[in-house]
From TrEMBL:
SUPFAM superfamilies according to UniProt: NAD(P)-binding Rossmann-fold domains (SSF51735)
Tagged with keyword Oxidoreductase: yes
Keywords, sorted A to Z: NADP, Oxidoreductase
Gene: Cbr3
Protein name in the entry: carbonyl reductase (NADPH)
GO MF, any single term: carbonyl reductase (NADPH) activity
InterPro entries registered for this protein in UniProt: CBR1-like, NAD(P)-bd_dom_sf, SDR_fam
Highest taxon, organism lineage: Eukaryota
Similarity section: Belongs to the short-chain dehydrogenases/reductases (SDR) family.
């Protein structure tokens, strides 16, 4: 088993994550883990794919639970000795008409979409084998210019996120500042947008750039790629089924990044990739117009 590839997709019991697992299973060159925070929902989705003639494996993984992440890490280490592909897909989004206070939306959305994703990476990255591919599922909302609140404060925030030498601690304090400001209802005057989802996804995108930079420093010869992707506007529960793309179409760009060939100089590296697979300049734009 140690010689075949090991793929992991977080939050893959439904939506785009499920379709990424489906596409990776079709590669037929290793073990693909469909993971879910709820075991029953996960196993049902495994059964669905089995009926299609595919053979995903299942493991429970709640990225919002450090114990669950540690158990999965230990399982991967013992069973496979490493990891080749990690797709950080799990996320949440409050509906636009939600009645939850903004302070709560900010805290919960950033905790799951940013902090939990980062924790999961911190635990699983030591398992990454040479030529590993990490795909952070961001969003069009993760585009830097979506930090578009009151000026000049928002431009200053953009500058801090865009710093090519941004340290993880600084990124964490930016996110904490947003959450704290949302609690104090001062976020707008400080230039933050009125969307917790935007801040969480911009932060995931900024994290991607840090992760690639650090891997280049610590493992320069291992051809490990970390990219962030906008999967398109997709027909899922998250969008209340308003997106025009099918989940399989939404899986196309993330899957492409997950299986980039080894040692190819043309591969995107630490890049923001749109659903049509075009590389987008995360800092300077322009904003692509496609879905
Ligand atoms: N759909 C779009 O148009 C769109 C556009 C841009 C970006 N995205 C991004 O694409 C990704 C997938 O979105 P989607 O539309 O497929 O959403 P979705 O249908 O709502 O699926 C989200 C998945 O994440 C899981 N999840 C949430 N919290 C988790 C946790 N703590 N631990 C493990 N899994 C957790 C959910 O599990 P449960 O079933 O247990 O809730 C579900 O499986 C997300 O990162 C999203 O932000 C989507």
């Amino acid at each position: 088993m140690a010689s075949s590839k090991v793929y992991v997709v977080t939050g893959s019991n439904k939506g785009i994550g499920l379709a990424i697992v489906r596409a990776l299973c079709k590669q037929n060159d290793g073990v693909v883990y469909l993971t879910a925070r709820d075991e029953n929902r996960g196993l049902q989705s495994v059964e669905l794919l089995k009926k299609e003639g595919l053979n995903p494996s299942f493991h429970k993984l709640d990225i919002d639970d450090n114990k669950s992440i540690a158990e999965f890490r230990d399982f991967l280490k013992t069973t496979h000795g490493g990891l080749d592909v990690l797709v950080n897909n799990a996320a949440i989004a409050y509906k636009v008409n939600t009645t939850e206070p903004f302070s709560e939306q900010a805290e919960v959305t950033c905790r799951i979409n940013f902090f939990a994703t980062m924790n999961c990476c911190n635990e699983l990255f030591p398992l990454l084998r040479p030529h590993a591919r990490v795909v952070n599922v961001s969003s069009s909302c993760g585009f830097l210019k979506r930090i578009n609140g009151k000026e000049p404060e928002s431009l200053e925030l953009q500058k801090r996120f865009a710093n090519p030498n941004l340290a993880t601690d600084e990124l964490i304090s930016l996110v904490n500042d947003f959450v704290q400001s949302a609690k104090e209802n001062t976020h707008s005057s400080k230039g933050w947008p009125n969307s917790a989802y935007v801040v969480s996804k911009v932060s995931v995108s900024a994290l991607t750039r840090i992760q690639q930079r650090e891997i280049d420093q610590t493992r320069p010869n291992d051809d490990i790629l970390v990219n962030h992707v906008h999967p398109g506007y997709v027909d899922t529960d998250m969008t209340s089924h308003k997106g025009p793309l099918t989940i399989d179409q939404g899986a196309e760009a993330p899957t492409w990044l997950a299986i980039l060939p080894a040692n190819n100089a043309a591969n995107p590296k630490g890049q923001y990739v749109w659903n049509n697979k075009a590389i987008v300049d995360w800092v300077n734009g322009p904003t692509p117009s496609s879905v």
